[in-house]
Amino acid sequence: MAKRLVTGGTGMVGTAINADLKIGRNDCNLTDWNEVNAFFEKHKPEEVIHTAAKVGGVWSNMHYKGDFFRENVLMNTFVIEAARLHGVKRFLAFLSTCVFPDKVEYPLNPEKIHLGPPHHSNDAYAYAKRMVDVQLRAYREQYGLEYVSVIPTNIYGPHDLFDLENGHVVPTLIHRCFLARERGEDLQVWGTGKPLREFIFSEDVAKLSEWALENYTGIEPLIFSTSEEVSIKTLVEMIVELLNFKGNLVWLSDKPDGQFRKPSDNSKIRAFLPEFEFTPLYEGLKKTIGWFEANYPNVRK
Ligand code: GFB
User: Fold this and answer.
1) Which architecture does CATH list for 4-160+198-228+262-280?
2) Whose CA is nearest to atom 25 of ligand 1?
3) Fewer beta carbons under 10 A from the terminal one: N or C of the chain?
4) Catalytic residue status for 125
């Protein structure tokens, strides 16, 4: 078995992936070239799944654009370059559905990534992630490296960041709903509830990533998606039911809706793995909430 390294090994997706070596932010500062280079020199991984990234929900994407751009560009550039220099054979990187243009014909597919500007709410992060595609294409052309990338939709699951302001919608609402229930307060939800999202369970992403690392060599990023759109309102109803919250909902119209929808085309992964069963949203939420309640307050928040 080849020696496999997972960056972001303490994060939501990284914890669910099987690997010989997992590193988190305390093991190696991936925005520092000398540290990254020394790490690869010392540990000599043969395969890499690069999940590490500075990520967050719509709020943090809007308010920390400089940090999101700089940290992601540096991490991705350095990790891919260290992999090349130290002879890594197989490499998988993560993009995100926000890399797609805001105004483009649906469904989203990999040929459309560079056809126009991303949604302004997360453009800094999206451009940084688009550069992963550019770098991998360049490295393939010049060095013949068959490194690959994948595009998961909105991922949720155990070990997520349950920050009340900067997290993604699922972990943030789980945490806020839990607190509202404990304190007997109203549950505050952002926006109108009308936007549509495609959610994917972290353990599904981990399984698909392992498969793709071992089997996929194409240059087109592979979309990981259930292709099932769910409104924020429906998502909230599921979380409320699973947490047995009996209070009132308050929709905060001054908070952002973000992009209205971003439906993606999952036909390629479906064709490769016709038997693969995605975890239904309700089941995934149940597992995530079970994990959250069992681990609270020792969750990342
Ligand atoms: O997960 P989220 O923040 O990211 O979801 P995006 C935002 C949607 O959930 C918006 C609604 O329609 C919000 O109005 N929402 C409702 C909330 N209540 C809340 C809440 O308390 N917190 C949050 N965060 N949202 C991100 C991108 O977009 O998706 C990233 O910004 C990345 O770059 C990620 O691509 C997958 O789906 O809007």
Assistant:
1) 3-Layer(aba) Sandwich (3.40)
2) 169
3) N
4) yes
